[in-house]
Specification:
Order of helices and strands: HHHHHHHHHHHHHHHHHEEEEEH
Radius of gyration: 23 Å
Structural class: alpha+beta
Number of helices: 18
Helix content: 40-55%
Distance between the termini: 57 Å
Strand content: 5-15%
Shape: globular
Strand order of the largest sheet: 1-2-3-5-4
Amino acid sequence: MAKDAIESARYFLRHRQFAKAINVLEGRSQFYDANALYFVLLGTAYLYAGDTGSATINYSKARKLSLTDSNLLLGQAAIFLRRGDTDRAISYYIEILNNDPSNKVALRAMEFVRTRGDFDTICRWTDTGKIEAFYPPIGFNVSKILGFAFPAVACILGCVLAFKAIELNRPGKGNRADLSSLMLTVEDRNQLQETDLASGAFNYLLSSKEISSCYDRAQRYFQEYRDNMCQIEINRLLSSNASVQVKTKARTLMSYLDAPSFDTIKDSPSYRQVEKETPLYLDCWVSWSGRVSNVENTNGVYTADFLVGYENMEKVDGIVRLKFVAAPEIALDKPVTVLAQISTEEGKLLLKGRSVYQSVKNNVAEGM
């Protein structure tokens, strides 16, 4: 029997497969927009994956639906604890214990803050992952237990799966999705170029061979989970003299691409690359560090100037407008890394923000 998204996410969380839990939950908010558990699970998956920005956004949505969920409060407390804001963390732990006096995680966290809650220790625990002891519990690591119980079987099975994965992930052997309907047919390949060049302006004039190679690369990159590289090839086709049939299939392929997290993003282009050839990088995802200024927060929409490369306050690579549909928590006096999608607005480069990360270590170092 097929599992629903919440049941599947719980399964992946127990097995510490956080990216899969995020993948199965993301994009289903229209079905669970009134379900606090959905947002708690998604926030917790992001928290364990190290993406505290996305975790904060989803916990905030859950908070509008539930005020007493212990796992929600533990997640929010953990985010403040990671930052070294122990006062805010304690306020959440007290709230948890008022509703659930025997909550073991909250009790352990309170004891940790009381006896060892200095900045240096918090930094070390965050860096080593020990801080996860105070995250919302997700059950025993089933995979780890099985590993201890059946080491020989696990080893053999792991080798088999590894060889299988290598085989499946060779170019042309991808197993991410069935793209057979998007293969170029014989008819497509007989007419790869637009016949009426006066019908539009093209950034790239490609030969039939180049169009075919470009489309084949896009499919290969997709199967290799290199979505940015796939998007670049799609953009090249859409801005070229490729035929309508090719462009239609390229747009369909684009709909299969996933939004990444900080842990999964690959092939993030540099600011210079994007500035030089913006149309080629539209809808690609970037992980850029810098600082924000000129912040505006109107009706929940957060916009700011993002000073790319200015994290050490030495050199600005460029200034880009940054927009979030839900206001993130960004300390203006600290460097920040943003995960965002490349777009344009009124002809100017725009970053559509997804999540942010500010290191506890940076906060400590600059505060000394």
